[in-house]
């Protein structure tokens, strides 16, 4: 069983090293395409000396180009399973081991749970903040492993940030009522609402904005990804500032009210 991971990045130098290092031992290759970073993302990727990383730079000028790049990457993939990986995702060993143990030829895909980090790696958004729905599951979840033997003609439809994989009937795979999937309970870490580049936060390098809220404390017995303990290009353990906490103290109740009403 061969697993190919796909990563398309731009200005992700805060977390890209940890993202790649967290999965390297569990996949057969990682196709990493940079679409025009101006921070240290490319330098950091090239610093990882591992033949599994298949790196390429492909400049994209708009959202449609990005979708096309993903399709070209998909068409070039020769593997049994596709793992979709973002440059701000860090995978604990437990989440990877559980995922790989559930890969089965009868399945179309796996649904993975994630923790959206809030302010630092010690806190995450509560589960009711996640509004994704796949099958009977809701919350912070997404499809990260896809059986390429089940889907011979996968295509990306729509453009970033709404692009999605569709089957032969042009139905998003998560909406296909005939899909057979399994659910992975062990979460991975998603840093989408933390600073993702050493460029200024307000440099418009990312679509998402920083979410300021207290969040829930990650359990003391949680086993963080081993790569976070290895000296890397950044300090992943930096705690959120007091100004962040003070702002979060009044913003969090408002977010909770909005979630309860919505």
What does it look like?
The chain is of the alpha/beta class. 22% of the residues lie in helices and 25% in strands. It is built from five helices and 14 strands. It has helices spanning 16-23, 41-47, 63-75, 93-101, 242-261, and strands at 3-9, 29-34, 53-57, 81-84, 89-90, 109-116, 123-124, 132-134, 137-139, 141-147, 155-157, 164-166, 181-190, 216-217. The strands form four sheets. The chain has an eight-stranded mixed sheet, with helices on both faces. The protein is globular, with a radius of gyration of 18 Å. The termini are far apart. The mean pLDDT is 91.
Structural class call reads alpha/beta
Residue-averaged pLDDT, rounded? 91
Most strands sheet: 8 strands, mixed
Number of strands: 14
Alpha-carbon distance between the two ends: 42 Å
- Secondary-structure element pattern, one letter each: EHEHEHEEHEEEEEEEEEH
Rough shape? globular
Query: What is the number of helical segments per DSSP (H or I, 4+ residues)?
Result: 5
Q: Taking Cα atoms only, what radius of gyration do you get, to the nearest Å?
A: 18 Å
- Helix amount, in percent? 10-25%
Low-confidence stretches: none
- Can you list the strand order of the major beta sheet? 3-2-1-4-10-6-13-5
> Beta-strand level of the residues, as a percent range?
15-25%
């Amino acid at each position: 069983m061969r697993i190919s991971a796909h990563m398309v990045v731009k200005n992700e130098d805060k977390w890209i090293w940890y993202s790649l290092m967290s999965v390297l031992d569990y996949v057969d290759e990682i196709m990493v395409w940079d679409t025009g970073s101006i921070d240290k993302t490319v330098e950091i990727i090239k610093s990882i000396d591992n033949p599994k990383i298949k790196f390429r730079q492909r400049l994209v000028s708009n959202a449609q180009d990005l979708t096309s790049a993903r399709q070209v990457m998909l068409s070039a993939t020769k593997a049994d399973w596709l793992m979709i990986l973002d440059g701000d995702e860090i995978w604990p060993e437990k989440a990877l081991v559980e995922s790989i143990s559930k890969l089965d030829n009868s399945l179309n895909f796996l649904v993975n749970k994630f923790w959206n980090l809030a302010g630092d790696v010690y806190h995450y958004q509560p589960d009711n903040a996640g509004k994704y729905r796949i099958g009977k599951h809701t919350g912070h979840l997404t499809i990260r492993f896809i059986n390429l033997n089940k889907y011979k003609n996968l295509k990306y439809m729509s453009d970033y940030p709404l692009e999605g994989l569709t089957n032969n009937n042009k139905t998003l795979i998560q909406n296909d009522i005939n899909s057979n999937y399994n659910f992975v309970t062990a979460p991975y870490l998603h840093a989408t609402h933390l600073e993702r580049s050493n460029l200024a936060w307000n440099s418009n390098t990312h679509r998402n904005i920083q979410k300021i809220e207290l969040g829930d404390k990650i359990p003391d017995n949680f086993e963080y990804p081993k790569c976070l303990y290895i000296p890397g290009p950044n300090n992943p353990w930096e705690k959120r500032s007091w100004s962040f906490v003070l702002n979060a103290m009044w913003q969090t109740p408002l977010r909770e009210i909005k979630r309860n009403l919505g």
